[in-house]
Task: inverse folding
C-alpha cells in the first residue's frame, strides 16, 4: 500500500513501540478471589514474561465496566510507582485504544513503560449480560426508555437486529455463521488453557438453545473469571526484554459510525465501525489485509467475527459468510483467526487475550502441547489435529479487530520484531 | 416536575431537566408520535437529542409524524434477562423504518425506531403473532399508558396496510 496515503499518524511511529510482555491468569469459573488478586497476578505475570521488575513499569492503564480494581491498587500491591495511570470505562473496544494511548503518553514523555490490564470475575461476580449490578433495576429514564423498556439490554439483544439484517441483505446462512464457533473450537482444542476445549459441529451450534434469534447459545461467547495484561514500551527497550518484541505498526481506537447516540439511524445497519477504521488501520500500518498472516477478529458472538473481517476488507461486503466457513480462518488455512479459540472458547476478557495470542504467534512461542526441546524452546509440529499444535508457520504480520458494538471498534496491526 | 410512571413493573422517572424526553413521552401520553424537526435544516430526528445530528443547530420544533412504517430488522428474545420479560418470551425486538423521511438525508438513513411487537391494545405480542411478522412487514404505532405524562410506544401489524406475502424471517429449520 502506498506511503502517501498516510492519513493520521506520523510514519515515524510505525514499529517504534512494541508489546514486550504478556501475562494472564487461568480462565476460570469461580476464581475464588477478587479482581484485585486477578489483576495483580496478570500484571506480575506480564512483568515476569518481559523480564521487568516493578521499578521498570511506570505507567498503568486499565478498562472495565465498573467491575474491576483500579490501577492504583494493583500498582500498590506490586510496588509500582506510577508516573502515569488511567482507568477507563469500556469493554471490547478498549484494548487497542489503550495501546494507542500508551504510545501517546510514552511519546509525550509522561512515562516509559505501560502495563495495560483487564481483570474481571465475569462469571462469578458481574456478568456482562446485565444480571449483575444495579443497572437492571434502576428506574427507566432517558436512554432506558428506548432500550431497557423493551427488553433491549444485553449485547446479544442490542446486536441482533444488525446480525439479522446481514442475513436478509446478503443471504448469509446460520450454517455459515456456525462455522465460526466450529473453527474456534478446533483451535481451542489445541489450547491447554482454553475454558472450552471440546470441538463442536455445525449441528451442535444449531441445536443449542436459542438465546436471542439469530443467536444460539453456542453463537455466544463464554463467561469467565480472569485477568490479562500486556506491557507496552518503546521497541528499543523491548529489545532488551526476555522475548522477541511484537512491533506495533498501527492502531485504531474506538473509531465509530455516525450517530453514536443510536447507530441504527445510519445504515446499512450491518456495516460496522471497521468500515471507517480500515482507512486508519491499513495506511498507518503501510500494509493491507492481504498481507496479514493471522487475525484476531473479536468473537463476542460468531457474527461479530464475520462482520469485522468484511468491513476491514478481508473479503468483500456480503461475502463474510463464505469467508468464515470456507476454511480460510482455520489453523492450516490461509489466514487463521483467533488461534486461541477466542472469546467463544478460550475465555472472555474484552479482547485482551486475543492480542496476547497474536503476540505469542509473532514470537513463535504459542503455548500449546508441543514438546519442549532441550533448550527450553517448544518444538512446534504444525500438526493442527485435536490436541496438537496451534503455532502458525513463521507469521510476520497480525491484525486484531476489537468490537464494542456495530457502532464502535478498535484495531491494531503488529509485526514480528 | 419529574414525570413518574410504571411500565411492566419497571419504574419510570423522567427528570424535568430532561426536557427533550419529557416532551417526547408527553406526546406519547396523548397517543401521538412527535419528533424534533430542526429549525435550520428541516430534518426530523430520532431519538430525542439536544442538537441536530446533521447541522448541529440547537433549535427545533416538535412536529407530528405518522406512526407508520416497515420492519427493517428484528431480534427474538428467547432467554429474557430482565425478570419482567420472562413471561413474554419469545418477544420481538423491532426496528421500524418510518415512512416519513425514509432514505434521507442519505440513501441508508431513516427514522429507525426501536420497540417491541405488540397487540393492537399495546400488550407484548404473543408467539403466534410474532411468527407472522418479519422484515418487510407493515407496522403501525400503538401506545401503552404508563402514568401521567408518559406512554410507551410499541408497534403492531397494520391491519389496513398491504402486507408482504411472506415477510422475511430467520429460517425456522435452524
Result:
Amino acid at each position: 500500500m502506498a506511503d502517501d496515503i498516510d492519513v493520521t499518524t506520523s510514519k515515524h511511529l510505525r514499529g517504534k513501540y512494541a508489546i514486550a510482555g504478556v501475562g494472564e491468569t487461568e480462565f476460570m469459573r469461580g476464581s475464588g478471589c477478587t479482581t484485585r488478586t486477578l489483576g495483580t497476578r496478570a500484571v506480575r505475570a506480564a512483568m515476569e514474561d518481559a523480564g521487568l521488575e516493578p521499578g521498570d513499569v511506570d505507567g498503568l492503564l486499565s478498562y472495565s465496566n465498573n467491575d474491576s480494581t483500579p490501577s492504583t491498587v494493583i500498582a500498590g500491591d506490586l510496588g509500582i510507582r506510577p508516573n502515569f495511570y488511567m482507568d477507563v470505562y469500556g469493554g471490547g473496544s478498549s484494548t487497542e485504544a489503550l495501546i494507542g494511548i500508551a504510545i501517546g503518553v510514552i511519546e509525550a514523555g509522561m512515562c516509559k513503560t505501560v502495563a495495560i490490564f483487564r481483570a474481571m470475575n465475569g462469571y462469578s461476580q458481574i456478568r456482562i449480560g446485565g444480571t449483575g449490578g444495579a443497572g437492571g433495576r434502576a428506574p427507566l429514564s432517558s436512554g432506558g426508555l428506548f432500550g431497557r423498556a423493551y427488553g433491549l439490554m444485553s449485547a446479544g439483544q442490542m446486536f441482533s437486529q444488525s446480525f439479522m439484517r446481514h442475513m436478509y441483505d446478503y443471504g448469509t446462512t446460520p450454517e455459515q455463521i456456525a462455522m465460526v464457533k466450529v473453527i474456534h473450537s478446533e483451535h481451542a482444542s489445541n489450547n491447554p488453557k482454553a475454558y472450552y476445549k471440546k470441538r463442536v459441529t455445525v449441528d451442535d451450534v444449531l441445536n443449542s438453545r436459542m438465546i436471542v434469534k439469530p443467536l444460539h447459545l453456542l453463537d455466544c461467547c463464554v463467561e469467565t473469571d480472569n485477568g490479562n495484561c500486556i506491557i507496552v514500551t518503546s521497541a528499543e527497550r523491548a529489545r532488551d526484554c526476555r522475548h522477541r518484541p511484537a512491533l506495533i505498526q498501527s492502531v485504531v481506537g474506538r473509531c465509530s459510525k455516525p450517530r453514536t447516540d443510536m447507530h441504527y439511524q445510519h445504515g446499512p445497519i450491518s456495516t460496522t465501525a471497521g468500515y471507517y477504521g480500515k482507512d486508519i488501520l491499513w495506511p498507518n500500518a503501510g500494509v493491507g489485509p492481504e498481507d496479514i498472516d493471522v487475525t484476531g477478529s473479536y468473537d463476542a458472538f460468531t457474527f461479530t467475527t464475520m462482520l469485522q473481517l468484511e468491513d476491514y476488507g478481508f473479503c468483500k461486503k456480503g461475502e463474510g459468510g463464505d469467508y468464515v466457513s470456507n476454511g480460510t480462518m482455520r489453523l492450516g488455512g490461509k489466514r487463521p483467526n483467533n488461534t486461541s479459540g477466542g472469546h467463544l472458547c478460550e475465555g472472555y476478557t474484552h479482547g485482551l487475550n486475543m492480542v496476547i495470542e497474536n503476540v505469542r504467534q509473532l514470537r513463535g512461542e504459542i503455548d500449546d502441547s508441543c514438546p519442549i526441546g532441550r533448550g527450553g524452546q517448544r518444538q512446534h509440529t504444525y500438526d493442527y489435529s485435536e490436541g496438537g499444535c496451534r503455532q502458525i508457520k513463521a507469521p510476520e504480520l497480525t491484525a486484531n479487530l476489537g468490537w464494542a458494538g456495530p457502532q464502535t471498534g478498535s484495531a491494531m496491526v503488529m509485526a514480528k520484531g | 416536575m419529574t414525570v413518574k410512571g410504571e411500565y411492566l413493573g419497571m419504574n419510570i422517572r423522567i427528570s424535568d431537566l430532561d426536557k427533550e424526553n419529557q416532551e417526547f413521552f408527553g406526546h406519547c401520553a396523548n397517543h401521538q408520535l412527535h419528533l424534533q424537526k430542526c429549525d435550520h435544516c428541516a430534518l426530523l430526528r430520532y431519538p430525542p437529542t439536544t442538537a441536530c445530528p446533521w447541522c448541529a443547530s440547537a433549535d427545533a420544533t416538535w412536529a407530528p409524524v405518522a406512526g407508520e412504517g416497515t420492519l427493517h430488522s428484528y431480534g427474538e428474545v428467547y432467554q429474557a434477562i430482565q425478570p419482567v420479560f420472562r413471561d413474554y418470551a419469545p418477544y420481538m425486538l423491532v426496528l421500524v423504518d418510518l415512512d416519513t423521511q425514509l432514505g434521507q438525508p442519505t440513501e441508508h438513513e431513516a427514522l429507525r425506531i426501536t420497540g417491541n411487537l405488540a397487540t393492537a391494545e399495546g400488550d407484548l405480542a404473543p408467539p403466534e403473532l410474532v411468527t407472522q411478522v418479519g422484515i418487510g412487514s407493515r407496522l403501525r404505532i400503538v401506545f401503552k399508558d404508563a402514568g401521567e405524562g408518559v406512554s410507551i410506544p410499541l408497534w403492531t401489524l397494520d391491519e389496513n396496510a398491504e402486507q408482504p406475502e411472506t415477510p422475511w424471517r430467520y429460517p425456522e429449520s435452524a
About this structure: Residues 56 and 314 of chain A are 39 Å apart (CA to CA). Chain A has twelve helices and eleven strands.
